[in-house]
Amino acid sequence: MKKILIADYIYTPEGVLKxxxxxxxxxxxxxxPKSKVLRDNKDVETIEYPKYSLLxxxxxxxxxxxxxxxxxxxxxxxxxxxxxxxxxxNREELMQGCDLVCMxxxxxxxxxxxxxxxGAISSHGLDFEACFNAKQNVVFFNELxxxxxxxxxxxxxxxxxxxxxxxxxxxKGFFPGVAIHSPxxxxxxxxxxxxxxxxKERLPLTxxxxxxxxxxxxxxxxxxxxxxxxxxxxxxxxxVSSAKEFLESFDGVSTLFAxxxxxxxxxxxxxxxxxxxxxxxxxxxxxxGNGALELEKIEKIGVxxxxxxxxxxxxxxxDLWEEMKAALxxxxxxxxxxxxxxxxxxxTVNGANALxxxxxxxxxxxxxDMIVLQLEGEPTPxxxxxxxxxxxxxxxRFIMGERV
Length: 404
Ligand SMILES: [Zn+2]
Hints:
Layout: E1 3-6, E2 9-12, E3 15-18, E4 20-24, E5 28-33, H1 34-40, E6 45-48, E7 53-57, E8 59-64, H2 80-89, H3 91-96, H4 100-112, E9 115-122, H5 128-132, E10 137-144, H6 152-168, E11 174-180, H7 188-201, E12 205-209, H8 213-221, H9 225-234, H10 243-248, E13 256-259, H11 265-273, E14 277-280, H12 282-287, H13 295-301, E15 304-307, H14 320-330, H15 336-346, H16 349-354, E16 370-374, H17 383-390, E17 393-399, E18 402-403
Parallel strand pairs: 1-6, 2-7, 8-9, 9-10, 10-11, 11-12, 12-13, 13-14, 14-15
Antiparallel strand pairs: 1-4, 2-3, 4-5, 7-16, 16-17, 17-18
The structure holds zinc ion (ZN).
């Protein structure tokens, strides 16, 4: 049903508009001066917000692990490999400790924080029901993992089954996709098979890439902290593929790569050439001791990036405002205001583009996914900075034009 939304200010790609209104159904039909929208659309339901309200695009969290929402204090932070050992040690409790109620709580918390679309990396399919029933738009990335050739057929069969289920059940705003876990954990044969499916069915695609120094050293030299890990758990002495071989298998299929902190300049160039996007998860990166993505460098090379929370297995909440704030204080080499503007784009339109969804901007033709923020005064030229610092109250939310 059509609605007219009148906020004091509207955040658009053309700037912050005053005395304007937005006409929506599932998509944004018109952004124009208030008087014109009202004149053109008599008898349409009108919702008007208070002074200093700001209509803003819904936030987009491109990378989250809903299945691992049970963690509070079980996992060990500060070092990637120690964290990984703690994940394996606590695996059972983590999986069983988060049922439908727990996952739904995490999803609802995202909505409360203004996240109207998320990309869920689903390792086991346990989060299917919670994600399918979510109010948000969801890209449901069925994950493929397995570095041992002997188990490849079984693992691929299980992956296909999960993918099929996510394709069979349909609802508006639910999109099946594929996740290939990482270059160290997926056998090249499996990578090729999954990419065949992705190319044929044109599914959204994501992978983890170069998250830790351990990953870099293992893939480059079969050395470092992963050596003992692979030896102990998988009796594996060498990596299954090089970083180059892994990355190049994605050529021509624009992919969302999570982290990419330890990628080389050459790998960033490859990402740029193939229109890949990096999902930057600053809090997760800090908590796992992986350092900070060199934003200045990837900006200079011209790699696209968006912002994401990762899962509660490496975060304390699922909140992009918190990620923006962490990133603002982490990337001290970039000019403050410029960075604030980039972070706002990274949490909205860049995430939408990475997920290939027509969202993340209040402009005619885009989906009507929006939030209303209650500012405390007139927006200044430093609006983006203050939005991140002050985290204004969200007083309303819309997904595909429906109030949620
Ligand atoms: Zn992840």
